[in-house]
Design brief:
mainly alpha, single chain
Length: about 450
């Protein structure tokens, strides 16, 4: 029943894209068995290449064809060769970045002998296309989900309450926080790039977008986790209050956790990881984050976003090698926290902007100073919707310091009631989840 529901769910967008899902899973199911059943290193590697090529080939065609065409045209212009502009009107299958990564991890883990291949194709297909996480994650690995199919289930009040709490919190952060903020960001973002715009406007918009994208993706993840929980499945956590991170490394253990661990295990470590010379480590970091940026979208703005984070992590490693972080001074910790979160904030400008030119104009306007009362006052109401994000992170920080306990019982019931009231009275205009485009 879950498999049928998942296939209907995905097919309701573009029905024939179900064939892509079936193609991916058939190839990886077949390749997984061949990898596990072969004693020849050559054949094992050949079937792994087959799996990777089929998945990455689909991803490259549907998501990056126009990007590669544009880049090729720019490179040819360097040699004074004009190529006629070409643009393919392709509807990107929703969730293709997620289910291809998930399916690839299965064959890679079999190749590494971390898991055994699934005996039943239908169970493997359900692992890949389970509707709660299919289109925007979390990116679940076989060892985290397949074993759960065999568990006996019965309705339990504690499980139902926790599942509904996750769903309500997800709906609140999506419908109330992200959608309301999104209306202001979409309306005023171009004003942030206007010539001579006072710094208050781009700064406010950048803060708003940082809260919008967090709330939007957190909302989806919470709804996915809550829905799965009600059905008797536990999905991995995807966010852990990233805006209280005190270092760039810590930020990536809190933001989109399932993606950051995926690129660490299947990209960064194979590239050399922390092994070898500093130059090799720095190269692996930069390649990893440039590709992570490109994973988010076929545009130079996403690549530059990845470049910022890669550069920041390299710089942080240099400071660590000089033992700066061994200093216990509160001033050093606070200063570095502000530097980290300030860099993250700036990086969101490039993530949100339509072009690199627009992003650099917004960045330059951050340093203009001054105050534009008309635009600033028009944006001001949106800042009310930042408060839930601040409260969420503030309470998490106090709990992590051991000053207060985690929410439970009556407090969770009170919070849930407030969020339900907000959902029914303060919801914004309906907007698609931002990560559907990835």
């Amino acid at each position: 029943m879950l498999l049928a529901a998942s296939l209907v769910f995905y097919g309701s967008f573009v029905p024939w894209y179900l064939l892509l899902l079936l193609f991916t899973t058939v190839v990886d199911y077949y390749a997984g068995h061949k990898i596990a059943g072969s004693s020849s290193a050559v054949y094992r590697k050949a079937y792994l290449v087959l799996s990777l090529t089929s998945n990455l080939g689909l991803l490259a065609f549907f998501k990056y064809l126009n990007f590669f065409t544009d880049v090729s045209r720019l490179l040819l212009r360097l040699f004074h060769i004009d190529m006629a502009p070409a643009h393919w009107d392709i509807i990107i299958p929703i969730g293709i970045s997620f289910f291809t990564f998930q399916s690839m991890s299965y064959t890679i883990d079999i190749y590494r002998k971390k898991i055994s291949p699934e005996n039943t194709y239908w169970r493997f297909l359900l692992f890949v296309c389970f509707f709660t996480h299919l289109v925007s994650g979390p990116i679940v690995r076989a060892k985290e989900l397949l074993y759960q199919f065999d568990r006996k289930r019965k309705i339990r009040l504690k499980v139902c309450l926790e599942g509904f709490y996750l769903i309500v919190s997800g709906l609140f952060f999506k419908m109330v926080v992200a959608d309301n903020i999104g209306d202001y960001v979409n309306k005023f973002w171009r004003y942030g790039a206007a010539d001579g715009m006072s710094s208050m406007v781009p700064l406010s918009l950048t803060i708003l977008f940082s809260c919008q994208i967090f709330s939007d993706f957190l909302g989806y993840s919470q709804i996915a986790m809550g829905t799965a929980y009600l059905l008797g499945f536990k999905l991995p956590m995807n966010f852990n209050n990233p805006y209280i991170a005190g270092s760039f490394r810590e930020f990536w253990t809190r933001w989109h956790i399932t993606l950051s661990t995926w690129i660490r295990d299947y990209l960064y470590i194979p590239l050399g990881g922390n092994q070898g010379s500093q130059l090799k480590v720095f190269s692996a970091l930069m390649i990893t984050f440039l590709l992570a940026g490109l994973w988010h979208g076929a545009a130079l703005t996403f690549v530059f976003w990845g470049f910022i984070h890669g550069t920041a992590l390299i710089f942080e490693r240099i400071l660590r090698s000089n033992h700066l972080f061994e200093m216990k001074s509160p001033l050093v910790k606070i200063t570095w926290f502000l530097a980290v979160q300030g860099t993250v904030l700036v990086s969101w400008i490039f993530f949100r902007s339509d072009t690199l030119g627009q992003a650099f104009r917004i960045f330059n306007n951050l340093f203009n100073g001054g105050f534009d009362p008309n635009n600033a006052l028009a944006i001001l109401p949106a800042l009310w919707f930042v408060i839930p994000v601040i409260l969420l992170h503030g309470r998490a920080f106090l709990a992590e310091q051991g000053w207060i306990s985690l929410p439970r019982g009556v407090e969770k019931g009170f919070i849930c009631a407030l969020m339900l009231y907000g959902i029914f009275t303060l919801y914004g205009k309906t907007n698609a989840f931002l990560y559907f485009q990835f």
